[in-house]
């Protein structure tokens, strides 16, 4: 098994991270997770352009051009002969003595690894989700490696026998701890707009496009969590979970939601374009 550090592909055992990397000191970095289906990275360009946008928002220079990054990532996928799985990569603000003040001269560090991964068929019938306050910062649109609000929410969900945490800010539903949230009511799809309060998921963007092509109206508006009680259907989307139905909400509100035709249709359309 090989990993990538900057431009070198190394056996995992030989790869070391510098203790002064700002990723360790400050969580000062950004990342992407890309799905690999049949040896091909899915939506690679969309992920790379989101990485570039995260980098820009954080005044963090990417160490290589998008084209160079693509070549490096593809060579790692090939080297590890990953058929189905994910590639994780991150860029941190590089190695420097610990200091909150960053220099614009520090060279960013790129690291990447692959993971073998198969969809969990058991989740296809739906998952339980845990409703909890969104305690994250106000730039959730940036895919940073700072994920404390997310990991605490995920743990809380698991401690309550739920597969995912669904977060709300002052009762407005935002997104999952590692996914986006969609509701269906009267055949219309509802989701939080792509503001600073959520990550604009690549799967989210693809699902919205598939829905529109199918003549399903999509309304991107904030809504309070009480609407969960009136939803006809609900699902989450992410690179790893694809489109996964929600069948039970627990926590501040408890409700059961059936798996319905819109979710099924979108899931079929999503699978067909892979
Ligand atoms: N998580 N919202 C959050 C907070 C996320 O962390 C993710 C993805 C998404 C969905 O984005 P996408 O469709 O581009 O995967 C939404 C990844 C998979 C992770 O951290 O593992």
What's the topology here?
Blueprint: E1 2-5, E2 8-11, H1 22-26, E3 29-37, E4 40-41, H2 44-57, H3 66-79, E5 85-92, E6 109-116, E7 127-133, H4 148-159, E8 164-169, E9 172-176, E10 180-185, E11 188-191, H5 202-213, E12 218-220, E13 233-238, E14 242-251, E15 255-256, H6 261-272
Parallel strand pairs: 7-8, 7-14, 11-12
Antiparallel strand pairs: 1-2, 1-6, 3-4, 3-5, 5-6, 8-9, 10-11, 10-13, 13-14, 14-15
The protein binds N-(5'-phosphopyridoxyl)-D-alanine.
Which terms summarize this structure?
single chain; 274 residues; alpha+beta; D-amino Acid Aminotransferase, Chain A, domain 1; D-amino Acid Aminotransferase, Chain A, domain 2; 2 domains; 9-stranded mixed sheet; 6-stranded antiparallel sheet; 25% helix; globular; binds N-(5'-phosphopyridoxyl)-D-alanine
Can I get a quick summary?
This protein has 274 residues and is an alpha+beta fold. Helices cover 25% and strands 31% of the residues.
Characterise the protein shown here.
The strands form two sheets. Strands 7, 8, 9, 10, 11, 12, 13, 14 and 15 form a nine-stranded mixed beta sheet that branches. Strands 2-1-6-5-3-4 form a six-stranded antiparallel beta sheet. It folds into two domains: 2-116, 2-Layer Sandwich (D-amino Acid Aminotransferase, Chain A, domain 1); 121-272, D-amino Acid Aminotransferase, Chain A, domain 2. With 274 residues, the chain is of the alpha+beta class. 25% of the residues lie in helices and 31% in strands. N-(5'-phosphopyridoxyl)-D-alanine binds at residues 33, 150, 175, 178-180, 199, 201-204, 237-240. The site of N-(5'-phosphopyridoxyl)-D-alanine has 15 residues, from α5 and β13. Homodimer. This is D-alanine aminotransferase.
């Amino acid at each position: 098994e090989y990993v990538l550090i900057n431009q070198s592909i190394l056996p995992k055992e030989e790869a070391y991270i510098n203790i002064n990397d700002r990723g360790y000191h400050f969580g000062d970095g950004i990342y992407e997770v890309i799905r690999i289906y049949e040896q091909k990275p899915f939506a690679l360009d969309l992920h790379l352009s989101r990485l570039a946008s995260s980098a820009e928002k954080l005044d963090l220079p990417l160490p290589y051009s998008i084209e160079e990054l693509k070549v490096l990532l593809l060579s790692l996928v090939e080297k590890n002969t990953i058929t189905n799985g994910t590639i994780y990569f991150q860029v941190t603000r590089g190695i420097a003595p610990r200091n909150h003040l960053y220099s614009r001269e520090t060279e960013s560090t790129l690291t990447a690894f692959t993971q073998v991964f198969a969809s969990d068929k058991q989740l296809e019938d739906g998952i339980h989700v845990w409703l909890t306050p969104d305690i994250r910062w106000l730039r959730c649109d940036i895919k940073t490696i700072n994920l404390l609000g997310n990991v605490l929410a995920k743990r809380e969900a698991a401690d309550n026998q739920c597969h995912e945490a669904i977060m709300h800010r002052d009762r407005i539903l935002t997104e999952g701890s590692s996914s986006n949230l969609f509701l269906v009511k009267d055949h219309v799809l509802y989701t939080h707009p792509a503001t600073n309060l959520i990550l604009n998921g690549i799967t989210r963007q693809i699902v919205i496009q598939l829905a529109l092509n199918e003549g399903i109206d999509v309304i991107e508006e904030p809504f309070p969590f009480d609407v969960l009680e009136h939803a006809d259907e609900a699902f989450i989307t992410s690179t790893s979970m694809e489109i996964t139905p929600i069948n039970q909400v627990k926590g501040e509100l408890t409700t059961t939601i059936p798996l319905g035709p819109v979710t099924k249709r979108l899931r079929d359309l999503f699978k067909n374009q892979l």
